Amino acid sequence: MRPTTLAIAIVLAVRVLPVAGAEPLAEALHRLQARYEATRTMTADFRQVVESPVLAGALESAGTLAFEKPNRMRWDYKPPDPQLVVGDGETLWIYQPDDHQVIKAPLTEAFRANTPVTFLAGLGRLERDFAASLEEDRPERWVLRLVPHRDKGLGSLVLVVRKTDAALEEARITDPLGTTTRLLLANERRNVPLDPGLFRFTPPAGVDVIRPPAY
Predict the structure, then answer these.
(1) Of the candidates 87, 167, 195, 208, which lies 20 to 30 Å from 215 by C-alpha distance?
(2) Is 107 within a domain?
(3) Among residues 127, 122, 105, which one has the least CA distance to residue 70?
(4) Which residues are paired to 181 by β-bridges?
(5) pLDDT above 70 (res 93)
(6) pTM of the prediction?
(7) What DSSP state is assigned to residue 200?
(8) Are residues 80 and 192 in contact, defined by beta-carbon separation less than 8 angstroms?
(9) Are strands 101-106 and 91-96 parallel, antiparallel or unpaired?
């Protein structure tokens, strides 16, 4: 089981609009939306932890990410399980060098609508797809929970947002089988110039290119 799924998460092509509710919830959503609107590019270090009832222990990985609007992202996973995930705006590439293979899929069709992952990837809309609630109002952080409107069996998404600047510090996705994926961010840099080449990918010679059946 590879710890790749949340990477498709793109972390911050999120479109968040204020919704009716308690004042702290409205403020948290408004601040997160404002930060998103002001963010054109982002880089950060990440740590990912996957825990599941079927696993003997947690699966941990780490690396760096880069994001540029619209729908461009790059996730570099460090050894011992190196992977490269690139979204070029149209195509999603997942390169697994140890397996000598590349998974290729349309970015907009890689995930079903109304799931927590599509929201993180910026492919869903909060006001249409999710019910938002304030799980915790800590002194320095908000903890927001998002549940899909149409099918609550799809899982839930929890965001930990820093109050001082509305930065996203952690995202947690829990699926119906009880698997939880945590993504923790550090050393974030916003609106810095990025090399366009970061978001281009050409499969290396000799690797297998795998396409989902619907591609």
Answers:
(1) 195
(2) no
(3) 122
(4) 50, 173
(5) yes
(6) 0.80
(7) -
(8) no
(9) antiparallel
Average pLDDT, the chain: 80
Asked whether residue 134 is domain-assigned, the answer is yes
Q: Which domain holds residue 126?
A: 5-59+113-189
Tokens of 182: 């945590």
Beta-sheet strand order (sheet of 83-88): 130-137, 141-148, 156-162, 168-174, 180-190, 41-51, 59-68, 72-77, 83-88, 91-96, 101-106, 208-210
* pLDDT for the residue 17: 43
Q: What's the sign of the alpha-carbon dihedral 101, 104, 110, 116?
A: positive
Task: Please check whether residue 82 lies inside any domain of the structure.
Answer: no
The CATH number linked to 154 is 2.50.20.10
Tens digits of per-residue pLDDT, 139-159? 999 999 888 776 656 677 898
Coil, strand or helix at 50: strand
Interval 32-70: pLDDT, tens:
878 877 888 989 999 999 998 888 889 999 999 998 887
In a domain, 108, yes or no: no
